[in-house]
Amino acid sequence: QVCPRLRTPRLPIWLCSITGRHGVLFGTDSLLLSDWKTERVFHLYFYNGQQEQTKTAHLTIDTHSHHWEEDRSEDPSSPGKRHPSVEMAIRTKWAGATVSWNGTDPFF
User: Which residue intervals make up region (Disordered) (predicted)?
Assistant: First the structure.
């Protein structure tokens, strides 16, 4: 039998399989599970344990950003425009959100 805390975690946590690699995407704010107002701007962390990732990636998610605030250096419809897989996974829950990597080089 599964412990009740495993069915209803105290903190937001997602086990991810992104491009064939497993990782953990988690937050430290328990209100993210129960208060929709905290979904405006919040922090998530991603760790996949791979050799190339030396520390947990600290991500800032903004769900109310606007498409015109994006970097204009490249046409978003161009075939060369790639988004990190972690960002695409986050956008399955928060469509249109912008993700700041806070100084960490985004990895695909």
Answer: 64-86
